[in-house]
Write a structure and sequence with these properties.
Layout: H1 2-11, E1 17-21, E2 24-28, H2 42-57, E3 70-71, H3 74-83, E4 104-108, E5 117-122, E6 139-145, E7 151-157, E8 169-175, E9 178-186, E10 190-199, E11 202-223, H4 228-236, H5 238-243, E12 257-258, H6 264-292, E13 297-298, E14 311-314, E15 323-336, E16 340-344, E17 357-365, E18 368-370, H7 372-376, E19 386-395, E20 398-406, E21 413-421, E22 424-445, H8 448-452, E23 458-467, E24 470-478, H9 482-498, E25 504-514, E26 518-527, E27 533-541, E28 547-549, H10 552-557
């Protein structure tokens, strides 16, 4: 299949067009070649070619050898809060924000001077989580160290544009003597890599590589004579079997009998699964803490849901006795401080599937919980694929269990059939699904004027607890000349206080625009009494410290589109 994928890579095509706006050059191009002037950096050009090759071959993990960044833990960030005023806002981050669903902090030497520099990125998480984030959403900051051991802000963007989310990979790699910040995103429809070249502490070039998955190609890798008809069906219906993601009737086999919600069997399986999870949590907790050196409370989620279609009876191993089981597509979760759930995968292959959605099931045999490996020796979590769903069909007097898998990028999918009997299994069918790859590319570079106008200050919300469950927050600006900075922050706090007639329990602050000369805020505070809402639009002059109130219509004129 490797050669055929290379052939597909050669045949991939896209459209080329040019668009010019605000002094920037934006390119969408084809795969084949690009003129010398398209990419400012030779290193970026080489990285693009290398990533394309790795993706087509399915070897993106080779990029790991070039990664030089480290994800920062809570204890480290807490120490920074005491050591530097630039990091003071870290002190108010709850511990769980430094997991996969919160602030992303990277520690990395960005200029080769042997001193650690820092990157801070807060993905946009939605209005319901603004309470726990003491920072404006989609903010990105680079802190560069200096010879004195201090840090200066060299790059700040309050509305950083990226299509990536909190559970996507963010890292820095050093390739061809250049530094690149990389965001990686993969799901069932596409894989995307956003690459930013970092020079002297600022982002200078952006390259977005995107592969959309088109028509699905199915290949029967193996099947017995008895399974040829099913293999033909799975190939003919490739789109349906490849793209189906839920617990639909597609994955209820003719040998599976639904168990009614609230029935004796349903309640028994639920009770046993809950009890097993309590014990399993401690095992996963110890293993995760040892691997990642983080404290956590682990929960795997539950396969037994409220829906009757989640629980089934079937004679999986053909011994004349019905097995009871529940199956569900779930993220594998971590629960931290009893507050929020975060995605993680099984800890196979050194966390290879962390952050991935996969199969969760509870299987009961002879009154005891078991799994496929104990039942027949089948390890569903293979080296190259993760299980997504299974179902059971009766064919020619035999019972066949089908399992659907994906690779870690949700690109390839494998559908396999197993005959389970007498404590062992036999593979009877294997169908590989590979979608056609439709490649697009977007390149953009900053002009010299834009590089000069990069922001070297940052803004965040400083939260202050008034009493239990009641907080208030004031915008803070850091990175300006010290006397002006103190004056501005004092004026900002006073401005909010003068308009605050009640205690707030939820504060949102969005930066509508930010330049070297001014910041325009949208500030909303919800009172402890129903209906109490404080809404403010105001502009802060960063040269004089003057604060000017803006009406909604005026504020809208200052709205700044997301960018980098």
């Amino acid at each position: 299949m490797k050669n055929s994928w290379k052939w597909i890579g050669v045949m991939i095509f896209c459209c080329l067009f040019f668009l010019s706006f605000t002094g920037k050059t934006v390119l969408e191009d084809e795969v084949k070649a690009f003129p010398e002037e398209e990419l400012e950096s030779t290193a970026l050009k080489e990285l693009e070619l290398y990533v394309k090759e790795l993706f087509i071959e399915g070897n993106l993990e080779k990029l790991e050898q070039f990664r030089i960044s480290r994800t920062v833990e809570w204890e480290t960030a807490d120490q920074w809060a005491m050591d530097s005023p630039y990091f003071a806002h870290f002190d108010s981050y709850p511990e769980y924000q430094f997991w996969s669903n919160g602030v992303i902090l990277l520690q990395v030497d960005l200029n080769g001077d042997g001193k650690e520099d820092f990157m801070e990125y807060l993905p946009e998480t939605g209005r319901d989580l603004m309470l726990i984030y003491d920072y404006c959403p989609d903010s990105f900051v680079i802190y560069l160290s200096n010879e004195k051991g201090d840090y200066t802000i060299t790059y700040y963007h309050p509305n950083f544009a990226t299509n990536c989310h909190y559970n996507d990979s963010v890292s820095v790699i050093y390739y061809q003597n250049a530094y690149f910040l990389i965001f990686e995103k993969s799901d069932f429809d596409n894989y995307e890599m956003e690459i930013y070249q970092v020079e002297e502490g600022i982002l200078t070039e952006q390259l977005i590589l995107r592969w959309e998955y088109g028509e699905v190609l199915a290949t029967t890798l193996f099947c017995t004579e008895e399974q040829k008809e099913m293999a033909d069906l799975f190939c003919k219906e490739a789109e349906q079997y490849y793209r189906e993601r839920g617990n639909s009737s597609l994955f209820q086999g003719n040998q599976e009998k639904s168990v009614a919600r609230g029935s004796e069997e349903h309640l028994l399986l639920k009770e046993l699964e809950v009890e097993a999870n309590r014990k399993e949590n401690w095992k996963w907790k110890d293993r995760y803490e040892e691997t990642y050196e983080r404290s956590c409370f682990f929960t795997s989620g539950y396969a037994v849901g409220s829906s009757a279609q989640m629980v089934f009876q079937s004679d999986l191993d053909q011994d004349g006795e019905m097995e009871l089981y529940a199956k569900k597509v779930l993220p594998f979760n971590i629960k931290v401080n009893g507050n929020y759930y975060y995605k993680t995968g099984e800890l196979y292959e050194n966390g290879k599937y962390e952050g991935k959605t996969g199969l969760k099931y509870a299987l009961l045999k002879d009154g005891n919980l078991t799994n496929f490996e104990s039942l027949c020796g089948l390890d569903l979590w293979s080296e190259d694929y993760m299980p997504y769903m299974f179902w059971v069909e009766g064919e020619e007097g035999e019972v066949i269990t089908y399992v659907k898998y994906y690779d870690e990028y949700y690109k390839k999918s494998l559908l396999e059939g197993y005959r389970i009997k007498e404590g062992s299994y036999e593979k009877v069918l294997s169908v590989l699904y590979q979608p056609e790859l439709l490649f697009t590319r977007k390149y953009e570079k900053k002009t010299e004027e834009e590089k000069e106008n990069v922001l070297t200050y940052m803004v965040y919300l400083q939260r202050i607890a008034k009493e239990k469950y009641v907080v208030t927050a004031y915008p803070k600006i850091y990175g300006l000349e010290k006397d002006l900075e103190k004056k501005l922050n004092r004026e900002l706090e006073q401005y909010i206080k003068e308009r605050d007639a009640y205690s707030e329990y939820l504060i949102e602050s969005y930066i509508l625009s930010a330049t070297k000369k001014q910041v325009v805020f949208n500030y909303i505070a919800y009172g402890s009494r129903r209906g109490d809402i404080l809404k403010l639009n105001f502009m802060v002059d960063l040269e004089t410290g003057k604060i000017q109130k803006l009406e909604n219509e005026e504020a809208d004129l200052y709205y700044q589109e997301k960018g980098w």
